[in-house]
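Repro case for the chain-ordering regression, as requested:
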Amino acid sequence: MKVSYFPGCTLKNKAKDLDTYARRCAEVLGITMEEIENWQCCGGVFSTAKDEIASKLSSVRALAYAAEKEQILVSVCSACHNVLKQTNHAMQNDADFALRVNNYCAPDMAYHGETQVMHYLELLRDVVGFDKIREKVVNPLTGKKIGAYYGCLLLRPGKTMQMDDVENPRIMEDFIRAIGAEPVVYAMRNECCGGYVTLEDKNLAAKTSAAVLDNAAAGGAELLVTACPLCRYNLVKNGGRDLPVVYFTELLAEALGVLDATQGVKEENNG
Amino acid sequence: MQRIGVFVCWCGTNIAGTVDVVKVAQTLANEPGVVFSADYQYMCSQAGQDMIKEAVKKHKLTGLVICSCSPRMHEATFRKTAAAAGLNPYMVEIANIREQCSWVHKEMPIGTEKAIILGKAAVAKVNLNAPLTPGESPVTKRALVIGGGIAGIQTALDIADAGFPVDIVEKLPTIGGKMAQLDKTFPTLDCAACILTPKMVDAGQHEKIRIFSYSEVTDIGGFVGNFHVTIKKKARYVREDLCTGCGLCTEKCPQKKVPNEFNLGMDTRRAIYIPFAQAVPKIAAIDEDYCTMLKTGKCGVCAKVCTAGAIDYKQQDEYITVDYGAIVAATGYNPISMDKFDEFAYSQSKDVITSLEFERLTNAAGPTAGKLLRPSDGKHPHTIVFVQCVGSRCSGADKGKEYCSKICCMYTAKHAMLTRDKYPDTDVYVFYIDVRTPGKNFDEFYRRAVEEYGVHYIKGMVGKVTPDGDKLVVQASDLLAGKQMKIDADLVVLAAAIEPDKSARPLATLLTASMDTNDFFTEAHPKLRPVESPTAGVFLSGTCQGPKDIPETVSQAGAAASKVIGLLAKDKLMGNPCVAHSDEMMCNGCSSCEKVCPYGAITYADKEYRMPDRTTKVRRVAVVNEAVCQGCGCCTVACPSGAMDLKGFASAQIMAEVDAICK
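-- result from build under test --
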């Protein structure tokens, strides 16, 4: 099966592990991720300003590209996925917005939200299936206690993202089980890491990140996984704790036996 | 030719505000058959009705057209007026120029034009109306109450006290419902059990009341006055006629690890059990999901210890059919699941509980014998946070309910007050959106909690509860102070929204009773017929109709009972004469009508006919049972030969209306 793939800026530099292992694991699971040609930045954040279309145009182009190929559009970065999904939702449901976007873009690519937008985790759950992954695991992470860190963008706003229950999610916990490890459920797993506030007020980001890490550690987590480069940055650089935080794709690669020998769960030169 | 009178109602300004009623009356006066036309301010008033009666006599009217509100509102009123004036009640037609005209149009010319058209259609129909006489059907003088909570018990007692036999069907092994689980009741703080259990005993001992506990209604047929109900008596593996309720079996059963639903799973019971000491009927039941004997065939301890020989492992579900004249739904409520509200960490910490669980924790018969102890470590909590509106008043309703659950403000005030009263060393916080305490002595009660008992009421919602060691860190906003706050709590109590019991939806289907989008039963009229379902002979009692506290539930239960008594007091019921009728000469016996009839009202008969050539021929023709037919009209559409017609709504009448509108 072939899918359209939107990597996003961060995955091309600071978060290469998120990108590399996502592709490699997909191949093992029988899915080819075809990178969209000439993709541009997703916009970074989905602007809730009603009259704002400029920052959403690049997302629409990516969505329309996948529609032309009649493929699912997959991304791995929580932030990119959030913008793509919300933009697609607006194209489906906000007729005025869709009209202005389509008028601005070339008229031959009129797009109304036909593409199915999926996060890589949803691809694993709904297309591949966690049971199938369990069968393909050659190196189960047995005995490892792992906390899933959802952050805020992956699931919210729940009505638009339609991925999981925003207050009591289980997709990452099920993923952790599928690779043979034991999930640690802790209260702060869907609270904010501090996000972009780190640029403005590092202390505040340090406080929120530390609260997440402390709560996870108190619950017995030895390791946290996330899908978001910004979350990982905040937790690792601002959290001020020893608890390691890695991308979920790294662990998937380890379990599927396609992790680079030199790598493994390591301290990353992030930031 | 009919002599028709037209009466145009102003309904104050409801109609006259957007419809030129004088012009409507004048225009309709020129319609064929109309000999009298007038307008009046309130046609439904005594003066308005007198005006109609006088006109009937003076102008020798044979048919009436009332241009007024919806027929659902006053058709019955004007039919009575017609009857009082000596006309057949079915010679009255209502043109709805209020709900479907004046209320939806803003401009006078448009409203007036539409009112005239609707009036013309009604006149065209009355020209073809014929007098109809309703048939009669007998009334079975026995009532069924479905649900044995306080609503069902009160309804049954009131009906039985009036002398009519009543059956209560309760799905659990005992009656009592939610009220049996409560500790104290607001605003008087009398103990729930002390006021409920005597009523349970009364119901159990009343000679006119039969209780089918551990039973469910599986099928309902028939109609008002003549319901045929199938009741499934679930196998309880204990013979009701032999069990004395001694409780020995429930002490000796070796299967001790069954979650006790009466204490909301906060402690355990045995596989054979009596839900609580005051259960009615006090008869044990075996939980087949946990009984070792039923699952593996090895055990039999209860049978050995039972001196009455009441244990019967071979008992099967039993189905019985009983006839009833009236049915009361009293299926009650449940707190909603907290699955979607994990920001409050309900699934993560044992010390986050719902208010109903709090009731059990403070109840002397509960898992802690009435001592307020934390479920996690059995320690006394020193800081308690109550969160109101958990799942109530959720806009959008993608989680929770849009409605106010109504009882939470008062029971939370009760919980907070009782905690401060019994444990003055405990700090109590209540987070609220609004405090809603209308009701007799209700607001005084809430103010006492604040002013005398020093409960900290904080306007604002809790955003997150984070378990941290043996504490629960409650993060919330104080909207009046405009600040964020964090409280280290020992116990968090969630006032979960209430929703109708899951059994209500399938029951509504069996009853052909309507429900709203929240699965509450719909009443026939929200103000004027609050305890009747739109389905004749079906009545509503308690929270199955909407959130209610105990005083309101008991009032409604009594009201439902009085409606049932009124129905059962009649020996015969007048049917609806607007039923299907088949023209035998046109019917070819094809069975199309029988297939579409939702009520099973159509059968076939072989009848002899004299043919023009003087031979006799036997033909198969449809026959409508007028007592069963509800007049839905499905058969008239299905009939290929046009033999089937609906009295009062004949195809010719409908076509005349359409012609009048399109003219």
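Ordering looks correct now. Chain A touches chain B through twelve residues (CB under 8 Å).
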